[in-house]
Amino acid sequence: MHVEDLRWFVVLAETEHLTDAAAVLGTSQPTLSRSLRRVEDAFGARLFEREHRGLRLNPYGRLVLEAARASVGAVDAARSRIEALQDPESGTVRLAFLHSVATGMVPDLLKSFRATAPRIRFALREEPAHEIIRDLESGEAELGVTGPRPDPDTFGWHLLERQRLCLYVPPDHRLATRKQVGLAEAAAEPFISLRPGFGFRRVTDELFRAAGITPAVAFESTDLSTIDRLVGAGLGVAVLPAGAVRGTDSGATPVPLAGVKARRDIGLTWRLGRELSPAALRFRAFVALPS
Questions:
Q1: Is the pLDDT score of 283 beyond 90?
Q2: How confident is the model at residue 152 (pLDDT cuts 50, 70, 90)?
Q3: CA 127, 133, 137, 141 torsion: positive or negative?
Q4: How many other CB atoms sit within 10 Å of the CB of residue 209?
């Protein structure tokens, strides 16, 4: 078994489908099957249950997945550090970031940084907040752009942006012309929200608790752009960060929420006690420069 076998196993475990995983990896199904067999032989156990529509990771497989992610992350970290030490002007920054900052904040940061360090590369991971924290803990990512702020005893933090939260409503909604709205005023509306487990879902849940309301959730999504479009189609209302959804013309109208807690903090974070590669240190220093 080789490191690449573990890397391929992670992809297969995440897709739970041999054909899809082979397509992602750019290899053939027989080659991927042989790689899986090497991993199962090394651990002495079957790691998937074969089902009609694909594969299902079993309890042994979940244990191996956790170890494989940590192992691949450690190997990638060592490779990146050696590469950076051999040439301090190059190297790779392993950066994870939220879906909701993928169309604005992160591209803007990378463009500005590349103007000062054109030879440094990025290995990017676009994922929800809980997966960013998992990758920082395992070492698969060195830095993360996320929110809300993770545990300060475990993670460092540099605030990048404080986003105002708005109630997004259909264009002909009774609240669309308001300059500001209290969340309780929309208590009877159907809400469209992120699925549980996402960092921003925790933010909105706390807002609802503070307002003393239990929203009627009409639909849950994994993407803020989808939520924006559904609101524009008149299927409900939603709490979203102002300006977080770019490049859409859904028709949804943002109305600022009243209250000092109606905001979301987005920041750069890293695992305390873990040495960053020179490239990641350089990027962190660049991000922390006063504007």
A1: yes
A2: very high
A3: positive
A4: 10
Distance (Å) of CA 36 to CA 7, 20, 42, 71, 100: 10, 14, 10, 16, 34
Residue 76 is predicted with a pLDDT of 87
How long is the chain? Answer: 291
With H, G, I as helix, E, B as strand and everything else as coil, classify residue 274.
Answer: coil
The two tokens of residue 203 are 């933010």
Nearest Cα to Cα of residue 241 among 217, 257, 226: 257
Q: What is the largest CA-CA distance in the chain?
A: 64
Q: Give strand ranges (E) for the chain.
A: 48-51, 54-57, 92-97, 121-126, 143-146, 155-169, 190-194, 216-221, 238-241, 253-256, 263-271
What tokens does 23 get?
């397509």
From 68, 56, 49, select the one nearest 15 (Cα to Cα). Answer: 56
The pLDDT-based confidence of 87 (bands split at 50, 70, 90) is: low
List the beta bridge partners of residue 166. 240, 256
Q: Parallel, antiparallel, or unpaired for β 143-146 and 92-97?
A: parallel
User: What are the φ/ψ torsions at residue 224 (nearest 5 degrees)?
Assistant: -65, -35
DSSP letters spanning 119-160? T-EEEEEE--HHHHHHHHHHTS-SEEEESS---TTTEEEEEE
